[in-house]
Amino acid sequence: MKEIKKCFITLLYTRKAQAVKQWMENEGFSKEGSSSSDDELVDLTGTAQDLIDDVPYLDHGSTANHSNGSWAGNAGLLDLLEEGVPGVGTYDDFNTIDWVREKSKDRDRHREISRKKKQSVLALLFSLSDAFSGWLLMLLIGLMSGALAGGIDIAAHWLTDLKEGVCLNGFWFNHENCCWDSKETTFQERDKCPQWKSWAELMVGVTEGASAYVVNYLMYVSWALLFSFLAVILVRAFAPYACGSGIPEIKTILSGFIIRGYLGKWTLVIKTITLVLAVSSGLSLGKEGPLVHVACCCANILCHLFTKYRKNEAKRREVLSAASAVGVSVAFGAPIGGVLFSLEEVSYYFPLKTLWRSFFAALVAAFTLRSINPFGNSRLVLFYVEFHTPWHFLELFPFVLLGIFGGLWGALFIRANIAWCRRRKTSRLGHYPVLEVLVVALATALLAFPNEYTRMSGSELISELFNDCSLLDSSKLCDYLPLSKVGDKGANFSQSSNGLADRPAGPGVYAAIWQLALALVFKMFITVVTFGMKVPSGLFIPSMAVGAIAGRLLGIGMEQLAYYHHDWPMFKSWCSPGADCITPGLYAMLGAAACLGGVTRMTVSLVVIMFELTGGLEYIVPLMAATMTSKWVADALGREGIYEAHIRLNGYPFLETKEEFEHKTLAMDVMRPRRSDPPLSVLTQDGMTVEEVEAMISDTSYSGFPVVVSNESQRLVGFVLRRDLVISIDNARRCQEGIVGASHILFTDHSPSQPLGGPPPLNLRSILDLSPLAVTDHTPMEITVDIFRKLGLRQCLVTQNGRLLGIITKKDILKHMAQMANRDPDSILFN
């Protein structure tokens, strides 16, 4: 009865529309259709063929669909059969949106609002609320993302410490919080207090000796295995899209690709929980990349509170670009760096309005995180440091060396990781994701525990390496010999107000050097096999850790060189005995930036992020030198960053804007059909029946069909999408009286004479795009590729003297570019 009632209402509106159709045409109204589904990018769908079930059948509040480039009209006088069909104007899963159509819909919506706001106070208030809705949405995204990031930081810190012991005052306290109120701590042993007990103390009652070491070792490995097992099981059972970094897929989605469920509710919940578990397990991964995915999930869910973002895919992607900035803002406590990261690294379309809103959202998120204060030090990140010693011009040489190391490591890591991930996809290894995670977690825990620099979390390691030694530091990296014990070297001792003089390394520093060297080799190897597993895994922290270790080692070497050989020409002019010349922590920071830049190929945003981390303007030049050198070296060995490499590995249809097309091919060389292919499947504007069109749809898998005047003339009329065609025919068969397989389908304004007693025709002109992009057969592919990139096209028609010759899709272009680069063109899986 419900279905009959819906069809009856539709027929009533159809009859009413027929009475006013001529009046609407005379008044200049054009036809409308429905908007995109509310569930787009949110809920996993069974198959791409479920075209009707994922949207409400009759949506009286739906806005109009694009037709002939624009729409306008009286919303109360819609022909619902032709123009209000639910699902028309939406997209199948794993397809690319039509940017031109979506932007046209939004412009026409703005025109309609502007026209109506002069007619009544209510319409004016609606116009104001529509203009304010974008800023309100940014506020909500910032608040939600900041709160989630604060919770993730607190939970990860607690679970990481739980592997080593428990607080007697309350098991929910981490190590630092447990010892805050203790009056028995000292500067030398500030982490030891009676309230915090290691697992060995609780189980065997001793803190030293072989038995205590074995118990702590076993508990550390057991907790690591438990956390990693829970993470991979939750991902596998509830949200397969919650694994990995998320940034390659976010970049692809922002370019216009549809991946339903990737930014959905379950993905957000599971990613948040498993990110805490994965980081706490001790695996060589970070939470910074996945936080971008978390922020984009928040944005996509909140978009459904606002009609203009829920029903327009292009507008929603502007919000997701701002959410990417929010993710980096809460990950590093760097709002400005987050905005630049979104602009430089992930966004495909970034208008000026999105820049302002990204800045506002990043500001709100950083303020929210600061209010939560997850680390208890009034800082937004765990490894915030301040350096006071100025750098010297001659230090640019070791800074450039760090840049070279970062570029070499970045290029090596990308090649090794892609080779490992390809092996995972093509071998039996990919069939056992749970076993793989457990084996890697077991190997990581067994090898990490004996070395204190691999046992601690990635953020704590970076904080330790960035640290500028002071008198109260008890770290082995600050175990220098007192100047009073080194003879004449201390004669000219002078301690500056901001730092300690360069001193000879003590036994603690030499022990730390060996441990850091082993940690460097371990981190370089284990990160290759960890990134890409079926758990949430970021790459920022592991890459920074590798660079920070290398930088700290080089910094210590430079410091000792300056101390023992201060009379060398390179030190003599600016480094006098007893002066504070070299800051090893600065070298660690530059090494971290260089390695992260070599892996991701970030430049401007990376420098700003590192500047916001340190709060020192005077170190921008060294950061720029190291980052730029790293990019040059890495680009010389391979043009792709890690995210672009994973996009290509997964076969996503992403046209990289940074890549130049240098080949002298023409549109006719790329278009389909080729000479050996069957003729192009086309529809005629008035000569095909419903049965013939349905047969063509069932026999092909194309996402759309060109419409021509006739098979003989091949004069182009327009283009119709497969999804719109299927939905409209199905809806007409159910709800329009007399539509059968023999009914003619018309794409014209006028209805040609029909045989007496024959079935009524079905007019689908409302779903026809009368202004498809077309190029001639001799258009250079360089220009065609630029058109696809700048307009976000999914297909382009090829004509010769107005006659249709073929079609070029984004997939065709990507296959052609892969073929020109001697890569496998069949690796491009989607359009």
UniProtKB/TrEMBL annotation:
<comment type="similarity">
    <text>Belongs to the chloride channel (TC 2.A.49) family.</text>
</comment>
<dbReference type="GO" id="GO:0005524">
    <property type="term" value="F:ATP binding"/>
</dbReference>
<dbReference type="GO" id="GO:0005794">
    <property type="term" value="C:Golgi apparatus"/>
</dbReference>
<dbReference type="Pfam" id="PF00571">
    <property type="entry name" value="CBS"/>
</dbReference>
<dbReference type="GO" id="GO:0005769">
    <property type="term" value="C:early endosome"/>
</dbReference>
<keyword id="KW-0406">Ion transport</keyword>
<keyword id="KW-0812">Transmembrane</keyword>
<feature type="transmembrane region" description="Helical">
    <location>
        <begin position="512"/>
        <end position="533"/>
    </location>
</feature>
<dbReference type="GO" id="GO:0005886">
    <property type="term" value="C:plasma membrane"/>
</dbReference>
<dbReference type="GO" id="GO:0008021">
    <property type="term" value="C:synaptic vesicle"/>
</dbReference>
<keyword id="KW-0067">ATP-binding</keyword>
<keyword id="KW-0050">Antiport</keyword>
<feature type="transmembrane region" description="Helical">
    <location>
        <begin position="121"/>
        <end position="143"/>
    </location>
</feature>
<keyword id="KW-0547">Nucleotide-binding</keyword>
<keyword id="KW-0868">Chloride</keyword>
<keyword id="KW-0813">Transport</keyword>
<keyword id="KW-0472">Membrane</keyword>
<feature type="domain" description="CBS">
    <location>
        <begin position="767"/>
        <end position="825"/>
    </location>
</feature>
<keyword id="KW-0967">Endosome</keyword>
<dbReference type="InterPro" id="IPR014743">
    <property type="entry name" value="Cl-channel_core"/>
</dbReference>
<feature type="transmembrane region" description="Helical">
    <location>
        <begin position="291"/>
        <end position="307"/>
    </location>
</feature>
<feature type="transmembrane region" description="Helical">
    <location>
        <begin position="263"/>
        <end position="285"/>
    </location>
</feature>
<dbReference type="InterPro" id="IPR046342">
    <property type="entry name" value="CBS_dom_sf"/>
</dbReference>
<feature type="transmembrane region" description="Helical">
    <location>
        <begin position="396"/>
        <end position="418"/>
    </location>
</feature>
<feature type="transmembrane region" description="Helical">
    <location>
        <begin position="586"/>
        <end position="611"/>
    </location>
</feature>
<feature type="transmembrane region" description="Helical">
    <location>
        <begin position="430"/>
        <end position="449"/>
    </location>
</feature>
<feature type="domain" description="CBS">
    <location>
        <begin position="671"/>
        <end position="737"/>
    </location>
</feature>
<keyword id="KW-0677">Repeat</keyword>
<feature type="transmembrane region" description="Helical">
    <location>
        <begin position="545"/>
        <end position="566"/>
    </location>
</feature>
<dbReference type="InterPro" id="IPR001807">
    <property type="entry name" value="ClC"/>
</dbReference>
<feature type="transmembrane region" description="Helical">
    <location>
        <begin position="319"/>
        <end position="343"/>
    </location>
</feature>
<feature type="transmembrane region" description="Helical">
    <location>
        <begin position="217"/>
        <end position="242"/>
    </location>
</feature>
<dbReference type="GO" id="GO:0010008">
    <property type="term" value="C:endosome membrane"/>
</dbReference>
<dbReference type="InterPro" id="IPR000644">
    <property type="entry name" value="CBS_dom"/>
</dbReference>
<keyword id="KW-1133">Transmembrane helix</keyword>
<protein>
    <recommendedName>
        <fullName>Chloride channel protein</fullName>
    </recommendedName>
</protein>
<dbReference type="GO" id="GO:0005247">
    <property type="term" value="F:voltage-gated chloride channel activity"/>
</dbReference>
<dbReference type="Pfam" id="PF00654">
    <property type="entry name" value="Voltage_CLC"/>
</dbReference>
<keyword id="KW-0129">CBS domain</keyword>
<dbReference type="GO" id="GO:0015297">
    <property type="term" value="F:antiporter activity"/>
</dbReference>
